[in-house]
Design a protein that fits this description.
Length: 132
């Protein structure tokens, strides 16, 4: 089955696995997905990830992170820019997620980065998703 928005599909898999308290989730790999997962790792929303090959297909195995009460660290993750409605912004009007407590992931000319780093580098781009 063909997926029209693979990034949104990845975010949904991570959100659902986190809500169901799974230890890990496998996602078909792409460069953009790998960059998003790297940002989730550096920002502390997931425990770890690794690239695996399963039945001839490349996957990213994402290990989810939970606190001492077994509640997910990842409270929410939403796609902003969609195939039918792309959302772009300059660095001066970069939105904040939960007054700075969340993370905005942006695709810029310098690559995929967080909203905070995009403002520091003074580059705008396409808003991919928000995480909190």
């Amino acid at each position: 089955m063909s997926v029209s928005d693979p990034i949104s599909d990845m975010l949904t898999k991570v959100r659902n696995a986190s809500m169901a308290r799974h230890e890990k989730v496998d996602i078909p790999t792409s460069r953009m997905k790998l960059e998003i997962v790297k940002i989730l790792k550096t920002e502390g929303y997931i425990k770890n990830f690794k690239k695996i090959v399963q039945e001839g297909q490349n996957y990213i195995r994402v290990f989810l992170k939970y606190n001492e009460q077994e509640e997910p660290i990842l409270h929410g993750i939403e796609k902003v820019s969609r195939p039918g409605r792309r959302v772009y912004t300059g660095y001066k009007s970069m939105p904040r997620v939960y007054n700075g407590y969340g993370t905005l992931i942006v695709s810029t000319s310098d690559g995929v980065t967080t909203g905070r780093k995009a403002v520091e580098k003074k580059v705008g781009g396409e808003l991919i998703c928000t995480v909190w």
